Amino acid sequence: MSKKSITRFLGVTAAAVTMLGVSNAPAMAASTGEAGAMASPPSCVGVEIFTHTFSREALVLNNCSNSQRVKVLWAYAADSSCMVIPAGSARSDSAAKPNRFDGLVAC
């Protein structure tokens, strides 16, 4: 097979895989059970990440008018438990390095 044929074959194969919905992206939770846990918190919930010598810390700020329930997601470390943060308050969670902050989800 020539280089041009291989390139065309790979392009067609990639298009077919995309049309079938097959990818190496992580699967999201189904619409039952844990799907609520994957919802984003409202925009009035903010987070600041602090890097320390041996850990990273996520400080979650609730600027909403009511309490919020959130979970901190870490890559390469255990996620936090579901935290209830009263209106106008903050809570933090930390994880040992190496890790990466992956986001917040409502819980």
Outline the structure in words.
The protein is built from 1 helix and 6 strands. The chain is α+β, with helices and mostly antiparallel strands. Strands 1-2-5 form a 3-stranded antiparallel beta sheet, with no helix packed on it. A 3-stranded antiparallel beta sheet has the order 4-3-6, with no helix packed on it. The chain starts with a helix and ends with a strand.
Kindly estimate the percentage of residues that lie in beta strands according to DSSP.
35-45%
Low-confidence stretches: 1-37
Please bin the fraction of helical residues.
Answer: 10-25%
Overall pLDDT confidence = 77
Radius of gyration: 20 Å
Structural class of the secondary elements?
alpha+beta
Distance between the termini: 53 Å
Could you give the count of β-strands?
A: 6
Biggest sheet record: 3 strands, antiparallel
What is the H/E order?
HEEEEEE
Strand numbers in spatial order across the main sheet: 1-2-5
What is the 3D form? globular
Query: Treating each run of at least 4 consecutive H or I residues as one helix, how many helices?
Result: 1
